[in-house]
Amino acid sequence: MLRWLLSRAAGDPRLAELAATSPLVRPLVDRFVAGDTLEDGLRAATELAAVGATLTLDHVGEYVTDEQDADAAAGAYRDLLARSAEEQLPAGISVKPTQLGLLLDRPGCKARVADLAARAAEADAHVTLDMEDHTVTEATVRLVEQAHADGATNVGCALQSALHRTPEDVRRLTRLGAGIRLCKGAYAEPAHVAWQRRVEVDRAYLEAARYLLREATYPRFATHDHRLVAAIKREAAVLGRARDSYEFQMLYGVRDDLQRTLVGDGYRLCVYVPYGTEWFPYVVRRLAERPANLAFFLRALTSGDQS
């Protein structure tokens, strides 16, 4: 119920406006988002690269409502790729298909993905399509397949272990040779498409991880769960996989202690660095994953002190 309510809140423009004007909210936002500008994102990426992490940068935004917004989002990513290459950052990009107009014009979205993939390839960078709710899962997987059919093999996507369909999607994209970011899933999905209990989601995650360690060239495991991290390490060691043949991915501002430990132990770590002004949906989903921060956030939104 809590996740469902927060998912609804993530798409509420009135709450987004209220959060943006509350001075009490900003400290929490700064924990999960590198800042409002490209310079902020690059600054955070540079600091993380200096301690041995690679990066995937996200210019936050989703569900654009017109073609101009989709073109503007693509332009922001073009600027990001150019600056990242200039500064020689070990960074790719993560982008939500609905931010590129998936729900407005699928051919236009495909063209924007193709353009970004070509620009990323020039910098030897990877493009990950973030996975959104289940209504666009098939369309997102097809975007990856279309990109590979057109020769853009640096395009992959995230897959969510919470969804019942994910085992087949894992096999489907592994056969294609596409990069897969395996995550649990941050959306409140109905029972007919997704596992509802944490133990079921975790079990599905570990089963998919085992398959990827056996079959995929370079799997990407997005989790902050130390139990799953330990299980993946054990499985990789049993299979004889080198530590540089797969990577863990974690979010900016989450489990910094575990991030440092992984890098220190010689594992590959990629940090997901979001920046931009459209941060409200992203932060609310992080709160759904970390309820301890929720009470503070709600108090900040409802405080009478808006000075």
TrEMBL record:
GO terms for biological process: L-proline catabolic process to L-glutamate. One of its GO terms (molecular function) is nucleotide binding. Its cofactor is FAD. Keywords: FAD, Flavoprotein, Nucleotide-binding, Oxidoreductase, Proline metabolism. This is proline dehydrogenase. SUPFAM superfamilies: FAD-linked oxidoreductase. It catalyses: L-proline + a quinone = (S)-1-pyrroline-5-carboxylate + a quinol + H(+). Binds 1 FAD per subunit. FAD binds at M131, Q160, K184, G185, A186, T223, H224. Pfam families: Pro_dh.
